[in-house]
Amino acid sequence: MVLEIVPNLVNNLWVVVAALLVFIMTIAVGFLEIGELGKHYSRALVKTIIITVSAIFIMAIIGFNTAFAPTVYGVIGNPFYGPGLLLGEFSSNAQGLLTGVWWSMGPKYFNTGLATGSYFLFEAAFASVTFALVSVIVLKKVKMKALALFSIAYFILIWNLPAAWIWNPTGWLYLMGMRDFAGGLVVHAAAGAAGLAIVLEIWLEEKKRGFKQSPKVGIKLNKSWLALGILLLWMGWFGFNPGSVLAFNSSALTVVLTTFLAASSAAVSTMGFKWLKDRAKPDIAYGVNGILMGLIIITPLAGFVSPGSAIVLGLIGGPLFLAAERYFSKAKGFTDPVGLFPGHLVGGIFGVLMIAFFTQHSFAAASGNGILPNGLLFGGGLSALHQLGIEAFGIIVVFAAVFLLSFAFIWLIAKCIGGITDSAYYKEIKSAKAGHRN
Predict the structure, then answer these.
(1) 4 pLDDT tier (thresholds 50, 70, 90)
(2) Which stretch of DSSP H or E encloses residue 351?
(3) Strand pairing category for 76-77 and 71-72
(4) Secondary structure (3-state) at 70
(5) How far is CA 72 from CA 69, 119, 155, 191, in A?
(6) Which of 58-67, 88-97, 210-219 has the lowest mean pLDDT?
(7) Domain CATH for 142
(8) Which residue spans traverse the membrane (predicted)?
(9) Is the pTM of this model over 0.90?
(10) What is the distance in angstroms between the CA of the first residue and the CA of the last residue of the chain?
C-alpha cells in the first residue's frame, strides 16, 4: 500500500532529507551574521525564523504554484492549478498528495516520481534560504516589518519568476535551453540582484537623513559562531546540490564529490592568495568565505562537471572572491560585511557562465540534463558557444527582472510605512559621532 501511494519511495525519502538539510541553511545564515557582526546580534536569529515560517506559509498558499505549476505562456506558474491553492485546499484528490506524483515529476518531464509534498518541501526550503541571503544586506538598518512585508511579494513573485523560467520544464528560458543546476542564478545571483535593489532604497533614505555616504556596519568577528555557521551551511549544501538531482542515484553521489571538492579547493585558494597578497596569516573569515565561494561557484554546474573540474573551479574562486571583495569594499552607497555581493552575486554569475566551459555531456545527461553539450574546454565548439550565449542572456534577463521588481516593491513598502530604515539605528550613529567630537 505504501509503495502504491509513493511510487518511488527512495527518491522521495532522499528529497525530503535534502529539504530538511536546506532548511538548516537558513538558520546557518543567521549564525554567519552573528559570526561577522558579534554575538550580541541576536536579531539575526529572529530574522531567520521569520523567513523560514514565511517561506513555508506563503509558498503553500500560492508561491509553489506560481513557480512550479504548469506555466502560463512560459512566464509564471498557474496559481489555480489543480483543485486550487493551499496545496489542494481540503481536497484528498490533489495531484500527487495521496496518490500519484507532481506533474513535472512524471515520465513526460523529470521522471523522478516525487510526490507533491516532497517536492514542495524541497523548493520551499530553497525559497527560504534565498531570502535569507537577500536579508544579510539589511543588517541593523531596516525595520523588521518592512522585511516581513517584502517577503510576501518575494515568495509570491520575485523568487518565483526565475524559478518558473529556469526550473519549470514549461518555463521559457528552460525551453530555450538554459540550465542552472541548483541555483547559481535562481538563488545566488538573484539574491544579489534583490539585495542591490534594497540597498539602493536604503541609500536613498540615508541621503535624506543627511549622510554623505552609507554608514558602515562594523565587523566584530566571533570565531565560534562563524565556524558553526559555515559548518552547518556546508552540511546543508549536501542537500542543496545533491538533492537537486531530485533522485537518489549515481549522479547524486557525483554531485556530493563536486560540491565538497570545490568548497575545499576554494578555501585553500582564498587563504593562499590572501597570504601571498598580505604576507600575513589569513583569519578565519577568509577560510569561511573561501568555502562559501567554492560552494556558490559549483552550485549551478555541480551535476554537469567532473570532480577534476570542480577542483579547478574552486581554485579560481579564491582570487575571484578577493578581487570582488576589494571592488565592492570601495562602494560608498552600502555596507556588505557578510559578502552578499562579492560572494553570491559574483560567484553565482561566474558559475552559471562556466557551464559553457566545463560541462561534460555524460555528467549532464546522468543528472537529467542531456540537452547540454560538452563545454568549450571539452571540445564543445559552436554548441558550447551557443550555450554560453543562452546562459549570458538568461543572466541579464533574470538580473534585470529581479532588481526592478524588488526595487518597485521595496519602494512601495517604504511609501506605505514611512521608509524602510530604522530611525533608532541612525540616531545611535549620530549620537556616537557627537560624543566622539566632544
Answers:
(1) very low
(2) helix 346-353
(3) antiparallel
(4) coil
(5) 9, 20, 18, 24
(6) 88-97
(7) 1.10.3430.10
(8) 12-32, 44-64, 119-139, 146-165, 185-204, 224-240, 252-272, 284-304, 310-328, 340-358, 364-385, 392-414
(9) yes
(10) 77
Assess whether pLDDT exceeds 90 at residue 7.
no
Residue whose C-alpha cell is 517584502: 150
Report the helix count and the strand count for the chain, using DSSP H and E: 19, 2
Bridge partners of residue 96, in order along the sequence: none
User: In the numeric block, which cell numbers belong to residue 16?
Assistant: 525530503
* Residue 76 bridge partners (DSSP): 72
Element of type H or E holding 147: helix 144-153
φ/ψ of residue 338, rounded to 5: -90, -10
Cα–Cα distance between 420 and 411 in angstroms, integer?
Answer: 9
Give yes or no for residue 306 having a pLDDT over 80. Answer: yes
For 186, other C-beta atoms within 10 Å of its C-beta total 31
Residue 62 phi, psi dihedral angles, 5° rounding: -150, -30
Cβ pair 220, 33 in contact under 8 A: no
Per-residue pLDDT band for 382 (boundaries 50, 70, 90) equals very high
Residue 402 has pLDDT above 70, yes or no: yes
Residue 420 corresponds to which cell in the numbers above? 524602510
Match 560552494 to its residue by C-alpha cell: 295
Instruction: For residue 77, give the 3-state DSSP assignment.
Output: strand
Q: Could you list the residue range(s) of the whole structural domain that residue 411 is in?
A: 2-437
For residue 76, what is the enclosing H or E element?
strand 76-77
Q: What are phi and psi of 217, to 5 degrees?
A: -85, 120
Radius of gyration of the chain (CA): 21
What span, in angstroms and rounded, lies between the C-alpha atoms of 294 and 314?
5
pLDDT digit string, tens, across residues 31-83: 999 988 886 777 888 899 999 999 999 999 999 999 999 999 999 999 999 76
Q: What residues pair up with 71 in beta bridges, in sequence order? A: 77
